[in-house]
Amino acid sequence: MTLSIRACAVLISGGLGAYLVLTGLARELESQSVWQRARIDAVKQGRECGVNIDRLHFLSDTTGWAVGQTSVFRTRDGGQVWLLAGVLPPSYIIRSVWFFNEKEGLAAGGIGLKGKLFQSHNGGNSWSAMKTFSEYGGFVPTDLVFTDEKRGYLVGTVQDGKGALILETKDRGRTWGLVFRNSEWLELRRVVFAGETGCAVGGAAIVCTIDGGNHWKEVFTAERVLPFGSVFLVDSNTAWAVGGPGTALKATSVLGTWQRLDLVGDIVSSFLWGIAFLTRNQGWICGDKGAVFETRDGGVSWTQLERPGTGFVRDITVNSTRLLVASDDGIFFRRLSH
HSE of 267 in the Cβ direction (CA atoms, 13 Å)? Predict the structure, then answer.
């Protein structure tokens, strides 16, 4: 391969020229819109951490965080390089992270029936316990989102997988109150907002709000557990929910009808963990065994991209220049092609 030969020749010569050409090589690779593995520095103070990544959260196109098990990683270059920011207590698996600015953030997770919320004031380098949820019978949060500087929502499971809750805070996470509960559902896995509209999914159910979280309504329940893996709001009306195997639903009004799409091809057999749209027409779904699918016609048809690895792709996000996925194999990114 021409690119590989050129890289080897320059490395032999060494010096500044090697750096410049290798930088050009990286740019050339990215210009071809192929997957590139992000560099993850998983060692801090002599302790090596795993790089199985569950969730991504970006504050801007360049600054973001990733969580996997008990580790929190940070990037300042749009996801090409990730440094280990901090490590939380080993007994708590972090499921979601949210930062208000480059310094202040929250992380939510738990183990067994013990859920906990942690806070950081230095960009994720160190964390302290902020809140436990014993009053809700063993609530373990699985996702966290804020709609403004003070108001946010936690979703998760309770009582050993025998119930689902939505909790609300109006003081940046210091106190939380119950706004929705269903004791028959297995869990709520993800929650998203677009303006005053919000949706949460998990198990075989979808629940939504159109008044900023004051009232939540069950809008879809499947006859069997699918389960749903993720949800995405293109705008305050258009929503997508995905799950498995090969389950995708779309609504043009979140309190209206959620229509199941008739998918074809390899996507039908894949459990779909995450979904993200850049525009109303261009979007991506990720799933098991490294599967990533793209649509450019608003979900009418989906094309499978080359796989960025073989592990489960658990989260996907997009900014103005790159598509990024988090998986059991680490973090991968590729240049957007419009």
Answer: 25
